[in-house]
What we know:
about 325 residues, mainly alpha, 7 helices, 2 strands
Amino acid sequence: RERARAGAQAARHAWLLAREETAAAAARAFLEWKHALQLIGVREEGVSDARRLLSKYEEKARYGLSEESDILQAKASLEIQETELLLARSRVEISRHALLAAMGRPGTDALPPPDPAAASRPGVFDSMSEEEAVSGRPEVAEAARRRERSEWELRVTRLDTLPDLSLSAAYGFAGLDTSPSASWRALGGWRHPAAAVGAGLSVPFGFKRERIDRKAAELRLEAARADEEASLRRARLERRNALETMRLARERAEAARRLLELQRRKFAAEEANFKRGRSSTDLLLRFSQDIRQAEAERLRAETDESLSRVELARTCGRLASELAP
Length: 325
């Protein structure tokens, strides 16, 4: 019974592990889809800026205030931005299909707009102790249950190799009447008892088959213990790596926000110089592209920060309950 109970618990933890992995895949796919949607906004702003700049130079060209090279540079910038927008829209479709596949839904289903605060709320997993986090991992619990099941299997196997003494007794009524009688009713009577008593002794301890079964059970137990230790080491390593990844992602997101602010201030200063005739079209276009690149990097860094929180929750074995409490 204990062996069966350990097997049932191991199966349940295997189901929990599959549940965690499915939730992690869906969360990653959702964050990538959300990032792709946000990136479209950045690319559309880049196209709008390039079109405004081209219109401005074409207007100035009518009065001889801009060179042909300025117009060609603006057209090239517009072509680049439109290509980036095309790639961004394609990435949205790809990420949408990946999300629907992770959710187990048909690829033709429509998805509602993502919540801006989804998957970005702070968690408490970074403040948990390592032992508390590791204890919640389904694969660690599953390995422990498999080890317990192997222990019970070894106990049963050892019991099967011990001497077996059995006693048996039987009592019943059968046959014809054992006492003589002149009456035909003796043929249908039940005064003919039969009794049997026996004893048996089985000593399989020295048999080769039992020795092999016992050795196989011992090896299975050693393998289960090794798997449990490996699972613990792997869980601790993933937990430490997830903490370091989240720390780095947070610093990277902060650095990306500071860089974006600097790029905007740089563009504003250069635009003022351009109005005073102390700058060139090439610098203005380059600084505008730097802003869009910084915005894209900020979105990527914030998405990676959210992904690091998902990974940290997964290493604690509580991602599914966090997403669907």
